[in-house]
Amino acid sequence: MERTQGGHYVIGIDYGTDSCRAVITDAAGGREAASAVAVYPRWAQGLYCEPIEARFRQHPRDYIESLESVMTQLAESAGEYLSQVEGIAIDTTGSTPCLVTDTLVPLALLPEYDSNPDAMFVLWKDHTATGEADEINRLARQWHTDYTAFEGGVYSSEWFWAKLLHLVRTSPELCKVAASALEHCDWIPALLTGTTSPAQVKRSRCAMGHKAMWHERFGGYPDDEFLNRLHPELVRIKNSLGVETYTSDQKFATLTAEWARRLHLPEGIPVAVGAYDAHMGAVGGGVEKGVLVKVMGTSTCDMIVGPHGKSDEQPVKGICGQVDGSIIPGLVGYEAGQSAFGDVYAWFKSLLMWPVEQVLPYAVGAVHEKEGTQAPAAAIRALSAEISARIMPALEAEAAKLEPGASGVLALDWLNGRRTPDANQKLKSALAGLTLGTTAPMIYRALIEATAFGTRAIVERFEQEGVAIEKIRAIGGVARKSPLVMRTVADVLGRPIEVVAGEQSVALGAAMFAAVVAGIYASLRDAQAAMKPEIESVVLPDNDHAAIYDRLYREYLKLGAFIEKELT
């Protein structure tokens, strides 16, 4: 078949919190040829999750079915491109690990464990391991080597070893079956390439460095004695991981005939080593030295890179790790972020929707019962969906009319704990300044301001620790869909924010790695230079608002200090 005009096609697969996205990209210039999205079917039903317990699990079948769905969509709409794809790269959320057999089968794919949440992937925002994270931190501070030093100095319940420690304690029967544990970003490349042994897995430098305490200075992972002090099963899992990690500009292996058929792709094309979505997204957003890329979605990840320097690498306190090559090979990748960002707004929407979902059907039914008619169930569902679609735009419009600080409401953004600075998943959010005159738009505005204050705390921590930030860019759904959020963040920071064009910056970043393993470009920097998207807009701060927010930010810090003291 003759190559479609444009040249070299690659595909980026992006596994987000709620869905899988696939984007076919022309590597000659980064043009998106086609894309598709598929939600995780079980996750969409809320299965295996218990928010009140901070338990969030995802079934491996969701990952397989959503991947096949997006690729089938692409085959139907853009099949001419699929036959010419030259390479694949995959990013996922993280840390999202799962216990697996000696042939790398997630335990939830075994019939006897199909409905066991502990046999599934433990999603990044699962905080059931908060107690285990505390144990790791206490032990690290008294150990001869502080294995948390390059993880920001505080280990989080969102990360690899804390989650595994929780699993081996709560489900010891599963541990007898498990031979190893795999991050989601390592399992998908293994699955697609027919890799069936832990020894054959090219573990992601990004995942293992940021979340599993892997560092060259340690010779790999924490020593056996350290892990044994936590639980002997962790030593066995560690020994299955090997000692090497790999950057995502390297080939994991090649696509098998079976998965080529199932995904409508050419057999034998290279599959890149996996990485986390925020790290590949930062590449897609144009990260470079001095440029902080904010990946703004359900949570935020704030990514920046820097050179190694002339002296030994100095740990940056309170962030989510610094890893050589985790973002751009050859540079140190720094990660920070907020455990809830878009999730904060989604929580408020859910709160307001409760009477619509729970009371409206009964109220309409009661009216029809009095009239002796049948309640129109389909019409009720349609009305509920219409309200759901309109509620956030209406809130944003009204909240935008409010002047900063005018409502007197102050909020903390810790609805899912705090990731940065200084991870503490025990923390809770708070609202202060409520009166009988407080309205829903006032609270919504305060929640937006809280997420912006959390962003400022991250920027200040980076700069206090010597990581220079010359420019800020934003990617993700929130960045392009909410002008009010972006204006507020710019005002609170007192800095302009560049919004990157395109809805699929994360998948585009993955496509850049695919272009490297396909041999289209010699290095990631070459791919990034050729494929990076344009800046869609620049959000400038309002100097008058910035002055007001300086005062409100200090109040935010004061409220946060009080809440933290009371909770810890």
Describe what this molecule looks like in 3D.
With 568 residues, this protein is of the alpha+beta class. The chain is 43% helix and 17% strand. It has 20 helices and 20 strands. It has helices at 41-44, 60-82, 130-142, 160-170, 172-177, 184-192, 205-211, 224-230, 232-239, 257-263, 277-284, 342-358, 360-371, 377-400, 440-464, 477-481, 483-493, 505-517, 524-531, 543-567; strands at 9-15, 19-26, 31-39, 57-58, 85-92, 97-100, 121-122, 180-183, 251-254, 270-272, 275-276, 291-296, 300-306, 322-324, 332-338, 410-411, 431-432, 471-475, 497-500, 535-539. The strands form six sheets. Strands 14-15-13-12-18-19-20 form a seven-stranded mixed beta sheet. A hairpin with a 7-residue loop joins strand 14 and strand 15 (332-338). Helix 11 (277-284) crosses helix 18 (505-517), helix 12 (342-358) crosses helix 14 (377-400) and helix 18 (505-517) packs across helix 19 (524-531). It is globular. The model has no long low-confidence stretch (mean pLDDT 95).
Largest beta sheet: strand ordering = 14-15-13-12-18-19-20
Total helix count?
Answer: 20
Quantity of strands, as a count: 20
Largest sheet: 7 strands, mixed
Structural class by secondary-structure content: alpha+beta
Rg calculated over all Cα atoms: 24 Å
Intertermini distance: 64 Å
The proportion of residues in beta strands is 15-25%
Average pLDDT taken over every residue? 95
Helix content: 40-55%
Would you identify the regions where 5 or more consecutive residues have pLDDT less than 50? none
Shape verdict: globular
